[in-house]
Specification:
Low-confidence stretches of chain A: none
CATH topology of chain B: MetI-like fold
Oligomer: heterodimer
Shape of chain A: globular
Largest sheet of chain A: none
Number of strands of chain B: 2
Distance between the termini of chain A: 47 Å
Largest sheet of chain B: 2 strands, antiparallel
Number of domains of chain B: 1
Distance between the termini of chain B: 11 Å
Number of strands of chain A: 0
CATH superfamily of chain B: MetI-like
CATH class of the domain at 62-236 in chain A: Mainly Alpha
Structural class of chain B: mainly alpha
CATH class of chain B: Mainly Alpha
Mean pLDDT of chain B: 85
CATH superfamily of the domain at 62-236 in chain A: MetI-like
Number of helices of chain A: 11
Strand content of chain B: under 5%
Mean pLDDT of chain A: 88
Chain lengths: 280, 324
Amino acid sequence: MIGGRRFFVPTMLAFGFAFLYVPILSMMFFSFNNSKLVTVWDAAHSPTLKWYGVLFHNEQIMGAAWLSIKIATLNACISAVLGTLAGLVLARFGRFRGRTLLSAMTTAPLVMPEVITGLAMLLLFVAMEQWIGWPAGRGVTTITIAHVTFSMAYVTVIIQSRLSNADDSLEEAAMDLGARPARVFWRITLPLIMPAVVSGWLLAFTLSWDDVVISQFVAGPSSTTLPMVIFSKVRLGVSPDVNALATLMVLIVATGVVVSALFMHRQEQRRQREARLAGQ
Amino acid sequence: MSVAEPQHSSRARRPRPRGSGPLGWSAYVREHWLGRRLVVAVPTLWLAVFFLVPFIIVFGISFSQSVLAIPPYEPLWSWLDDRVLALRLHLGNYDYLFTDALYVSSYLYSVKVAAVSTLFCLLLGYPMAYGIARATPTARSLLLMLIILPFWTSFLLRVYAWIGLLKNNGVINNVLMALGVIHEPITMMQTDMAVYIGIVYSYLPFMILPLYSNLEKHDPALLEAAADLGARPWKAFLRVTLPLSVPGIVAGALLVFIPAVGEYVIPSLLGRSDQLMIGRVLSDEFFENRDWPVASAVAIAMLVLLVAPILVFQRYQNRELAHR
């Protein structure tokens, strides 16, 4: 079994990564294919950027992408604030009445099947419109509220986990020196957890940018987000301009992730160097 | 974060009573901060109004009757002439769920698909998490980044990528035919297998990350001790590593199983059209038949099935976030 483990684990790792990346790479590769059949390589006229041109002239896709960017940005900002508050409360406020409820309401959205959340949110909006006349109709407002509700749960978990990992002696020292909690939060806690807030913001943006099921329930007739357009297109089968769109999105995300990883790596190195210098 | 971002928790922590925050904070906050209630109230109210209340409404509407109106359900209560509040609960929707074979079979089919996919996810994810946890620190952060990277790209487009691979004139069939392995394309789209692949593919990071953050914490001295006492590596694995990693297995399995039961996008794009999953039934009931009460009853039936796994997951998550 020594030999077995030496071969089995690396083989599974290689297989797993191939499984994760081959579909994405194949999808990107065929975005340069001239043929409308997508997966049948047209060697005579490929590679070509034809489908990227088609993509940028598709007003429906461009309009939906713009709407999705707006909703995702709005969602990320609101979720970052609410999630930071909830994470702070859960990690730092000790026991209080309602803690169990709040903690249950921030973990349930992480696993709740989307069809249930979508249906529940829509029925709420319909009932609210009947009772108090708001939100009137469905559109950007309702989609954003629905997205915030499940995104903030993810932000909460990130912040809570960051805070329970972080040393609270700085905060305690500031309070011993007489700083009021609000000042401690702005001057110490928030700068300390800023990287977690930023990754929470980015995650909330991605979740909203990606969501199709919940949006379908709570969207109105005039508010079609990008995932909704893609979903209705790909239900009919493969489509070359969707491959082009996917390639662009994967490249943007990959660049962002690699750049931020490098940035964090360098910061970590600097921190270690400073810690060494301080130790001398 | 134990879900999407395991962190290397190497910092030494002093022990702290379970469930309570640091003493300085809670004491100060209790005494000094008037804004405390506000800070607690804002996120709690948001989630109560937009997450808790909706479920109560779904529960209510599942006892209503479908009518041709806007909104298309009958109100549960109404005022009679002499100021008597009449409450009408209609149990027909649930009766319908149990008598119509469509609902029972798609319910069971969803559980089967979710269970099989979770098992496949575990069989692939466990060795991967194990390999990453045993890698050198540099390789480890690179491998983790490669696991998380697809998670940041669109879920919908990653499922879409499989259509290009699996369809009759797709990449896999074209390659196999060009190599002469097969002469007729194999039908892979719209099969159970395609749905399993789609779910494993989409949820694999959710299985690997909790497993990794568990396996990474194991003390290698335990395995050395087992080896010193004469245990062969596979036996040491079965008797030491595997039992210790049960919390990670449970967390990963629940993170895959619970959403997979209600999965809608993957079976719609890759799955069979003769056997629907319950998430698709709910959405068809809602969008195609416009029968909101039956759709609500389907949602409640799904929740009844999922409530136990969700509670187990919450307990794990709370423990994970409290003990660091």
